[in-house]
Amino acid sequence: MKITTKGVMFVAAVAANVGLQGNALAQVSPEEAAKLGKELTCVGAEKAGNAEGTIPPYTGKYLGEVPGWNHVKFSGDQPVDPYANEKPILVITAQNMGQYESHLTEGQKALLKRYPTTYKMNIYPGHRDFRYPDYVCERAMKNALSAKLVDDGMGIEGIGQVPFPIPKNGMELLWNHQLPARAYTEEKVSDLASVLPNGSIGWGRAYARNLSQANSPTVEPKTEGQIQAMSWNTTLKPVRDNGVVSISQEPYNFLANPRQAWSYSPSTRRVRQLPGYGYDQPMIGTNGTMTVDEDRLYNGSPERFNWTLIGKREVYVPANAFKPNTGDIKYADMLTPNHPNPDYMRYELRRVWVLEAKLKEGYRHVYGKRVLFIDEDTWNAVVADNYDSRGALWKHAMINYYYHPDMSAWQAGSQFFMDLNSGQYTGYAMTNESKKGPILNEAKFTPDMYTADAARAMGR
């Protein structure tokens, strides 16, 4: 059953939100799985455009290439915008937002109302022209027929990419966001900017090398391997924290194998284990505008929230966001007071899955409710609205994803976390002024590089 009103499509989700008990089978019927690669893309998106023609049909005509970007593999060259010559087809402002509110999130509407003279949304023509490698499609099909949730959704059993291409409940949708097809290895230097309402900026910079076994292009990543991803982060700025190293290991099952994390301090030359790392612990350098579990809009254990699949909507979200990640844009121009410069942002009308998280009784978190908007083509959350414990809208966040030839998938570019009360915000994972952009899938990292012993070696 589908209900369409004012251009917003909702999917009936009564069955999709039944509480999970024990191990929940997620397999769909062979007949339903057979839609993958036909009326659905191989990872589960609707191939057709919408009836109004404002969302285009999926073409997937480019694999491992971006027109106009003469990319040299593993070079770290900055992205080139294939749509640089396009002009906005619509500009949404505080004055005309009422005409388009069915395609806006509550956070977007709040920004337009609060900053009527400076905030706007440039809407561009939609494009669905890039695709995943065949191995991603093959794994998604296998998962559709065999993957399942275990331990009340705290873990999964299956293959580590796109576990539920046809999701039936909120927990399955969350795991799709946690385990989309993305980089197997990632190496980058990125910048963090904490922007105060008066425009002053506190800076951070970090070197990251990440290994995601869940995205191995050569070895089918079975969840029995326990660890889905590992990260290494070395702080470069501010100077007082230079050399601080953080390491973490992300499991496939947060009940059986909780996240492991360690920190190395060059001042003490000691390694500390960080039990319970994540959740609403403040991200260092963000003045409280970002929590640890907000990287990629949500990460980590699902245990503190009840997750509900609300349905699908047509929403203006960041898409094909090459422009805000190019080396042509300087931070001085992009990081304006209260919100990033809207002239550098690109929005398209997209179909998104809406995932709502409400804090469980007896659990603690600074957010009482979170709403994630997950792009149907990629399973990446691209926008989030976060509410305080009283139910008041508090923060709005967005990620500028773009297709990267190194891995033939979508790379998380700059992320922005805006406090609607204080007027401050954080720009996160920005690489515009780095010497190099991200280097992806070079496959030069190994699991032994992400342990407490590896951190201790820093002090020898």
TrEMBL record:
The superkingdom listed in its UniProt entry is Bacteria
UniProt keywords (A-Z) are:
Signal
- Source organism per entry reads Pseudomonas putida NBRC 14164
Q: Does the keyword Iron apply?
A: no
Record-linked Pfam families: DUF1329 (PF07044)
- The signal peptide here is 1-26
Specify the protein name: Outer membrane lipoprotein-sorting protein
Annotated CDD domains: LolA_like
